[in-house]
């Protein structure tokens, strides 16, 4: 595992964008696994800037997003579909048919999870998977548990996650209680992994996840076992390392 400590959020975003840009340049038809949350927004801004300068071409890129709230429609401004279009897809030349997310409007969890897992497999898995980090160590929406979940599945969100994400909704009651997420196995099958974390409130979990024991109670800790992981933190998130 490589860990880069940037001075600040901008520096973290630039390093992450460099790694993603290198992936796209080296393999223009790569499969990018993408993430939501506030942390990768600066990375997406950097990528859009490089696209606008003519340095990046997304025309052959395919994307698979980590997760989606169950029950939110695509036009709901809190859906991850909306987030990804607003922050990245609407600003670059990725073909609409190359964009993939779990379908939050599919009520049949078993059917949707099997479809999404099958799709990722049919694409040969992600060449590079971008991840954020939840305060409780979750990646995607893989919450702390007694065992690691392998494939795409439907999760009941934990209170702490609902609490952390309620800032984006009118009230905590509006935060969906369930989500579809790639499993830990799906994530671990990506060829490369890039995790970004920023801010003081992530310092403790960054330390636990990357220097503590590997256990399903801290889902991100399993990344210690992946052969090609890069963690990019800003000074605050990396302050306890
Ligand atoms: C959500 C997402 C995760 C994300 C996490 C952290 O729960 N499902 O993929 O990593 O939040 O978000 P933030 O970057 O806003 O701290």
From TrEMBL:
Catalytic residue list: 67, 136, 138, 143
Pfam families: Glucosamine_iso (PF01182)
Keyword vocabulary terms for this entry: Carbohydrate metabolism, Hydrolase
GO biological process, one term: N-acetylglucosamine catabolic process
Pathway per the UniProt entry: Amino-sugar metabolism; N-acetylneuraminate degradation; D-fructose 6-phosphate from N-acetylneuraminate: step 5/5
InterPro entries associated with the record: Glc/Gal-6P_isomerase, Glucosamine6P_isomerase, NagB/RpiA_transferase-like
Top-rank EC class of the record's enzyme: hydrolase
Catalysis performed (reactions): alpha-D-glucosamine 6-phosphate + H2O = beta-D-fructose 6-phosphate + NH4(+)
GO molecular function ontology, one term from the record: glucosamine-6-phosphate deaminase activity
Top-level taxon of the source organism: Bacteria
Record-annotated Glucosamine/galactosamine-6-phosphate isomerase domain positions: 20-224
CDD domains reported for this sequence: GlcN6P_deaminase
Example of a GO cellular component annotation carried by this entry: cytoplasm
EC number: 3.5.99.6
SUPFAM superfamilies listed in its UniProt record: NagB/RpiA/CoA transferase-like (SSF100950)
Family as reported in the entry's similarity comment: Belongs to the glucosamine/galactosamine-6-phosphate isomerase family. NagB subfamily.
NCBIfam families on file: nagB
Functional summary from the UniProt entry: Catalyzes the reversible isomerization-deamination of glucosamine 6-phosphate (GlcN6P) to form fructose 6-phosphate (Fru6P) and ammonium ion.
Protein name per UniProt: Glucosamine-6-phosphate deaminase
Organism: Mordavella massiliensis
């Amino acid at each position: 595992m490589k860990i880069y400590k940037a001075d600040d959020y901008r520096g973290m975003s630039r390093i992450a964008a460099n790694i993603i840009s290198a992936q796209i340049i080296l393999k223009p038809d790569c499969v990018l696994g993408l993430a939501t949350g506030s942390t990768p927004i600066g990375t997406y801004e950097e990528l859009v800037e490089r696209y606008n300068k003519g340095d990046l071409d997304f025309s052959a890129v395919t994307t698979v997003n980590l997760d989606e709230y169950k029950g939110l429609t695509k036009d709901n401004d809190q859906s991850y579909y909306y987030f990804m279009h607003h922050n990245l897809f609407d600003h670059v030349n990725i073909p609409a048919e190359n964009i993939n997310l779990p379908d939050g409007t599919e009520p049949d969890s078993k059917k949707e999870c099997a479809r999404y897992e099958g799709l990722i497999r049919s694409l040969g898995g992600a060449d590079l998977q971008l991840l954020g980090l939840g305060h409780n160590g979750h990646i995607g929406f893989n919450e702390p548990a007694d065992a690691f979940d392998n494939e795409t599945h439907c999760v009941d969100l934990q209170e702490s996650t609902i609490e952390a994400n309620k800032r984006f909704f009118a009230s905590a009651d509006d935060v969906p209680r369930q989500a579809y997420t790639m499993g830990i196995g799906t994530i671990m099958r990506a060829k490369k992994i890039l995790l970004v974390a920023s801010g003081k409130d992530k310092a403790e979990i960054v330390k636990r996840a990357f220097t503590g024991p590997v256990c399903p109670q801290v889902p991100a800790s399993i990344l210690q076992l992946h052969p090609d992981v890069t963690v990019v933190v800003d000074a605050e998130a990396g302050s306890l390392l």
